[in-house]
Design a protein that fits this description.
12 strands, 258 residues, globular, 4-stranded antiparallel sheet, alpha+beta, 5-stranded antiparallel sheet
């Protein structure tokens, strides 16, 4: 079965900077460790995407077209089709007093966010801080090794794959997610552990919207609802839920430390 736009697939990849061979991203945990880019608590393994759904670079979306399950491919990505060329206008001088006003102690290499844009401090010279707001990979020629690990055909599995992509939550069990399909309507009840999510209401709502949009755009459903149910439980079950909530808070605190 050849892949086409709108297909749900699971993809493995490793991205390198072509000029140096340095690996900057991968779905393979062992490769990440060897490249010294391993991230604790990150779920490694193939990632679900919708082909043409703007989940990855357009060059990769284009590359997987007509590939088959289990097939691999090496793809070159120019700056134009990757993260763009470096723009000198994105390198800015910020007065030291701005950092002091916010109680920040700047240092070379420090990552900051200003007006929604991420940047990295290049130099500190007296009262002026030079910050580069270009993407770290801007101006780089990239090389991706791709493997199609699965083409997803079952509707429930497609929906679960979008939950996996957009709603990252520690210890969430997709097998405990209930999905009901009735005509053009999809009803989703997430694993109960997500009731203790510490993310803001806006972040949770946005994640649910992205799940719903990918379902609307690529499947034959018009309505997506998320069901939150709370049942009265006996004392022992309530105690277990309280313990789960405390564990969830501990995980969130550890992640914030990272």
């Amino acid at each position: 079965m050849a892949i086409k736009n709108g297909d749900f697939i699971k993809l493995e990849f490793t991205g390198k900077i072509k000029e140096t061979g340095d690996i900057f991203d991968t779905t393979n945990e062992e490769v990440a460790k060897e490249a010294n880019i391993h991230v604790e608590n990150k779920d490694y393994g193939s990632i679900p995407i919708v082909v043409g759904g703007n989940h990855l670079l357009k060059a990769i979306d284009k590359a997987v077209i007509d590939m088959g399950e289990g097939e691999s491919k090496k793809v070159d990505v120019s700056p134009e089709n990757g993260f763009g060329e470096r723009d000198p206008k994105q390198i800015q001088l910020i007065p030291m007093k701005e950092f002091k006003r916010q109680g920040m102690k700047p240092y070379v290499g420090m990552e900051i966010t200003s007006e929604g844009h991420k940047g990295r401090i290049l130099t500190i010279n007296g009262g002026r801080i030079k910050v580069d707001f270009n993407h770290d990979l801007a101006g780089k020629n990239l090389e991706y090794d791709l493997v199609i690990s699965e083409i997803i055909e079952d509707d429930e599995e497609k929906i679960k794959s979008m939950i996996q992509l957009h709603y990252a939550y520690p210890n969430m069990d997709l097998d405990k997610t209930e999905i009901k399909i009735d005509g053009d309507k999809v009803s989703i009840k997430l694993d109960e552990i997500t009731r203790f999510d510490q993310k803001s209401y806006m972040d949770v709502t946005f994640a649910r919207f992205r799940i719903a949009k990918d379902i609307w755009d690529n499947m034959d459903f018009e309505k997506v609802e998320f069901r939150d149910e709370f049942e009265k439980k006996d004392e022992e079950e309530s105690s277990q839920d309280s313990a789960n909530e405390e564990n969830s808070k501990d995980v969130s605190k550890e992640e914030s430390k990272d």
